[in-house]
Fold this protein.
Amino acid sequence: MLLSNLFTKHKVPPPRFAPGVFLALLAMFVLLGNAKPAYGLLGIGTTVVIGGLLVELNRDRIWETYLKTYKKQKGLRGVWSRPNRLYYNLNVYFLWPFVMFLGAVCLWAAYALS
């Protein structure tokens, strides 16, 4: 019985807390930046770079999940919430790399301050 469990693939639920943790870490490091700017910049830069990398690495999964949830959505379906591949590509190929660049600038500024 125990050996058969090793070969079955269980469905892993998607992380539901990731956006909240991302925003909480940013808020915490912004508040820390008031007291110690180098530590605040270091935390903000690290959080933003890791968040951007996670979005870039999971971009296909994010798109597929958004398509599935949009099809099941019964409320406000319209032009503003409809999945659009152009906006998605702009977000993935320009916005998140720019956010990661800003995170790298924060890391460089933290290094320069210390």
